[in-house]
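STRUCTURE:
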């Protein structure tokens, strides 16, 4: 099952909004076939593994074998036929499932169908790891919004820029390459107007990844300079300007003419969480699975205050900037008590040259929420 989880990750960025799934078929302690769901609309992991066994001349060895799969086999017709039928037709004797599929058309039905056909089905092997793997998929199904990843680069003393605003470059080239790889697998990348004005980012993946992310700028009054890279390249990469109801029509029209899509968000009160929940709901309607929030500090702070940061990628460089006015990663209101901080469910620490990347996933949102 550990191997199946490794294989499943290979579909990251290419299969969403479908789940990441890997499969390994074993007979007499030997692997006779393996596969993973490689692209949205393509064959599922179980079918790929069975076909791999057939191509290797091991189709007969698959009969009576054990199939390990990271997610419950589907039992309905979607873009592909049901995997349960393929598994039964191949003569698999036992299926080991890491986790049930929360998708309503499958949830438990695939397992029941296999058991009704006489197969032995065991559920729960490495379930926690499998649930972490598909946390974004589960989020989209359960809350109809994407998984939110906050990302920043900071110095050892927690600064994302000098007191002058200069921030190039805190992280090294290896860290920046890792960020480009992350951009290449998400559905959208979000920044605030201040980041557009100050840093003039392009927010594209270089080199390109399996996905082309939509670039979103939060700009309540449509005050961003129209000459920035994001807007000059709007015809080449999807670009959204998210504005409030009071944004002047003539300013909004300039961005539309430049090729931007406009999202008008309501402003029910002063709490920014209202607009963020509304924005995430629109992302969910588009079946976007992963949203990367790159800054600045006020935008990241607003997501944190609203309990909407599901994962953080923090790049820490061995540099010191100091300065009481130098910005830190999270602005906003913040938490009143350390005890209110979200608890990490998964933490990974990786080195990129002299930089350190800390990746953390959280078990629950911050107790602060939009009112």
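SEQUENCE:
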């Amino acid at each position: 099952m550990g191997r199946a989880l490794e294989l499943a990750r290979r579909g990251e960025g290419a299969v969403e909004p479908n789940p990441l799934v890997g499969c390994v078929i074993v007979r007499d302690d030997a692997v006779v076939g393996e596969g993973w769901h490689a692209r949205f609309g393509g064959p599922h992991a179980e079918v790929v593994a069975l076909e791999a066994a057939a191509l290797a001349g091991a189709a007969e060895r698959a009969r009576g074998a054990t199939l390990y799969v990271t997610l419950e086999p589907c039992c309905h017709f979607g873009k592909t036929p049901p995997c349960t039928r393929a598994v039964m037709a191949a003569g698999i004797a036992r299926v080991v499932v890491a986790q049930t599929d929360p998708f309503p058309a499958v949830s438990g039905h695939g397992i029941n169908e296999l058991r009704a056909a006489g197969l032995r089905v065991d559920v729960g092997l490495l379930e926690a790891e499998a649930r972490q793997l598909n946390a974004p998929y589960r989020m989209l199904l359960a809350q109809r919004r994407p998984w939110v990843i906050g990302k920043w680069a900071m110095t050892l003393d927690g600064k994302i820029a000098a007191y002058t605003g200069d921030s190039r470059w805190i992280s090294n080239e290896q860290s920046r390459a890792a960020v480009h790889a992350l951009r290449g697998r998400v559905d959208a990348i979000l920044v605030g107007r201040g980041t557009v004005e100050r840093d003039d980012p392009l927010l594209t993946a270089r080199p390109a990844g399996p996905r082309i992310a939509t670039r979103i700028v939060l700009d309540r009054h449509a005050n961003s300079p129209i000459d920035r890279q994001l807007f000059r390249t709007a015809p080449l990469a999807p670009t959204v300007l998210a504005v409030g109801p009071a944004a002047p029509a003539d300013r909004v029209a300039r961005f539309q003419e430049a090729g931007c899509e406009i999202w008008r968000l309501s402003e029910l009160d002063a709490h920014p969480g209202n607009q963020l929940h509304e924005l995430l709901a629109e992302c969910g309607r588009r079946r976007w699975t992963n949203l990367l929030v790159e800054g600045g500090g006020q935008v990241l702070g607003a997501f944190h205050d609203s309990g909407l940061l599901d994962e953080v990628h923090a790049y820490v460089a061995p540099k010191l900037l100091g300065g009481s006015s130098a910005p830190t990663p999270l602005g906003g209101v913040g938490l009143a008590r350390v005890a209110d901080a979200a608890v990490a469910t998964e933490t990974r620490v990786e080195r990129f040259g002299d930089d350190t990347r800390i990746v953390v996933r959280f078990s629950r949102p911050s107790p602060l929420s939009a009112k």
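REMARK: Residues 365-371 have pLDDT under 50 and may be disordered.
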